Amino acid sequence: MSDPAFRVGVVGVGWAGQQHLAGYAALPDVEIVAIAGQETDVLAELGERYGARHLFQDWERLIELPDLDAVSIAVPNFLHAPIAIAALKRGMHVLSEKPLARNAIEGREMVEAARSAGRVLDVAFNHRLRGDIQTLGEIIRGGQLGTPYYAKASWMRRRGIPKIGSWFTNQQMAGGGPLADIGVHVLDYSLFLLGEPKVISVTASTYRELGTRDIGGMRWDAAGGGSAFEVEDMAAAFLRLEGGGTLVLETSWAAFRNPDDLIDFHVMGTEGGAELTAVGATKAKVGDLHVYRDVDGEIADYQPAAEPGLAHAGVVANFVRTMATPAEWAANDGSVALRRAEIIDACYQSATENKEIVLP
């Protein structure tokens, strides 16, 4: 690549980091200049595959490079804020994995850094780019369901605790369990589908029943370290929305339920309803989508067709497109992701204090 429009670095060489790398490599106007990661063999292989000129084990060395336009962050949650803030202060755009940070306090510092630098801060909410969610969003925005007033959504695993003993199950490093990990995706695509209503209050419960027990098969991977299981393994939340609407969320890493993971969204509106059910969760590239309506007093239900979504490739492409459009930078300062973080924080506070929490 002789004269790329953008030079990027990626911090993190796990699954998520590799999705970012593949996304950038698919774009003609981007050069992957540097990669940072702790796994030296994986780092070397990815560096060779993508032609990165610089390979580091320390993220600090990567962001010191003088010719980087942007950095992708795909590392444990406790590192999101320090890396993003340092990169933004050096004038780089930032694409971070979800959640934005461990909590809204750190997230707010990231957003303030983006605003001060006049740079983009984006978060990889890839599930809103599922083809079935995009199709349902068009139906809702087109008015076929009228005004949505009640929605219920979930991401439920039976056996899906990631690396017990690693940063995933360490409260200080992760900030939370499935609510912060996969529940934030459910919150994001639900609010996206509902048209970004303001959440005025939350009532939530969290449970730590199975992660602390030696139950065979409840974890995805072998033990990842010496930390105790400090986070929840299931959470449920009742969200009151401005205008009188309701959103109910459920999420689990481990629960005695159907063995197939589930991502879903059910909505009722004044003129119709819809159900999206992806049994198998991320392995189900297109879920089962139904729309329920009456026309002239007769049932007029139908099943819309949907194509597989763009996933991380779409997230990366949108990020690069935003970088190429300075007029859009100010509107992409991480504020949407910060609102998600504030809601997640309120859910944890509600569960701890056993009461409804009103959001400002």
UniProtKB/TrEMBL annotation:
- Report the residue ranges that make up the Gfo/Idh/MocA-like oxidoreductase N-terminal domain in this protein: 6-125
- Is Cell cycle set as a keyword in this record? no
List each coiled-coil range.
Answer: none
What's in the keyword line of the UniProt record? Oxidoreductase
Q: Which InterPro entries match?
A: Gfo/Idh/MocA-like_OxRdtase_N, Gfo/Idh/MocA_oxidrdct_glycsds, GFO_IDH_MocA-like_dom, NAD(P)-bd_dom_sf
Q: Which organism is it from?
A: Saccharopolyspora griseoalba
Residue stretches making up the GFO/IDH/MocA-like oxidoreductase domain: 133-274
The answer to whether the entry has keyword Oxidoreductase is yes
Name-wise, this protein is: Gfo/Idh/MocA family protein
Tell me which Pfam families the record gives.
GFO_IDH_MocA, GFO_IDH_MocA_C3
